[in-house]
Specification:
Number of helices: 11
Distance between the termini: 49 Å
CATH class of the largest domain: Alpha Beta
InterPro entries: LysR_HTH_N, LysR_subst-bd, WH-like_DNA-bd_sf, WH_DNA-bd_sf
Family: Belongs to the LysR transcriptional regulatory family.
Order of helices and strands: HHHEEHEHHEHEEEEHEHEHEEH
Number of domains: 3
CATH superfamily of the largest domain: Periplasmic binding protein-like II
GO molecular function: DNA-binding transcription factor activity; transcription cis-regulatory region binding
Organism: Citrifermentans bremense
CATH architecture of the largest domain: 3-Layer(aba) Sandwich
Protein name: Transcriptional regulator, LysR family
Oligomer: single chain
Length: about 300
């Protein structure tokens, strides 16, 4: 089950409308509608009665909401148990998977080399909505997200970092050599995706909509929740994937993969560092934040600089 979609279903019922649920979740109304549609397609039943002024769950929807609440309670219990394992916590950081896979290992290594051995860290990967919810609920001290939908960040302090770039990739000799292609040249290919509803898939859906097309036109789509497996499959010539350039940067440099952009696609996804406005910036947190900016060869904003 996709927890993001399940949380969206619960919020829609509690709020009574897609528009109010979108405000609560910091996403667009179309994003909420799309997530509900994904669940309805998955289970083959309508989950919400949309005929009245207020959204109401159907019998199948009530059953799914009941199970979803149980699942989310287990998740929250697990989070609390993890927190209890830490008698003291210096930094709790959440980021989206592309940043975590591509940049976090180097940032973490440099931070630990320069910081006291007593510094305690907690790193979590999550979708943008989950990261912001955890920040709001004080589970995380700061989050770093790449996102494709219009998130409302007004309640937080957010700081821009270099945008993420999404690309199609294939193996040399696969048959797609041009760096810039028409989308129709890709539709017949086997497309590997991490999972339905993941950030890359949502970005692909949005990009196809800008062309007046539908991501469902990629009729040979394989969902596999394992990025290393997907990369190996593409390198073996079994298909293509749509992925953050940073994740496959080393393979592109070695010539093991070729990147492709699509005519009419905007490949950029905003990347933001986000904190609560009343967040206490202790020395360890400042060092970690400064390390993120330095990794991108950027001077941190004055309030984050530890350099005298």
């Amino acid at each position: 089950m996709d927890l993001v979609n399940l949380k969206t279903l619960i919020e829609s019922v509690e709020c009574g409308s897609f528009s109010k649920a979108a405000e609560t979740l910091c996403v667009t109304q179309s994003a909420v509608s799309r997530r509900i549609k994904i669940l309805e397609d998955r289970y083959g039943h309508l989950l919400l009665d949309r005929s009245g002024p207020v959204l109401k769950p159907t019998p199948v929807g009530e059953l799914l909401i009941e199970k979803a609440r149980q699942l989310l309670e287990l998740e929250q219990e697990f989070v609390h148990q993890i927190q209890a394992l830490k008698q003291k916590k210096k930094i709790s950081f959440c980021c989206t998977p592309p940043f975590g896979i591509s940049y976090l290992p180097d940032i973490f290594t440099r931070f630990m080399a320069d910081s006291s051995q007593n510094t305690e860290l907690q790193f979590v990967f999550d979708m943008p909505e989950g990261a912001l919810k955890g920040l709001r609920e004080r589970i995380f001290d700061l989050v770093l997200i790449e996102y494709c939908e219009d998130l409302d960040l007004q309640e937080f302090d957010s700081y821009p970092l270099p945008d993420d770039e999404m690309v199609f990739v294939s193996a040399p000799g696969y048959g797609i050599d041009a760096p810039l292609v028409e989308v129709d040249a890709l539709l017949s290919q086997r497309l590997y995706c991490k999972k339905s509803g993941c950030c890359a898939r949502r970005f692909l859906e949005k990009s196809m909509q800008t062309l007046g097309r539908d991501a469902a036109e990629f009729s040979n789509t394989v969902f596999f929740d394992d990025i290393p497996f997907i990369i190996r499959a593409v390198m073996a010539g079994d298909g293509i994937t749509f992925i953050s350039r940073s994740i496959v940067a080393s393979s592109l440099e070695r010539g093991e993969l070729i990147s492709h952009q699509v005519q009419g696609f905007d490949p950029s996804r905003p990347r933001r560092l986000v904190l609560r406005r009343e967040c206490t910036l202790d020395p360890a947190l400042l060092d970690f934040i400064e390390g993120i900016f330095r990794h991108f060869s950027l001077a941190p904003p004055p309030q984050f600089s530890t350099t005298v």
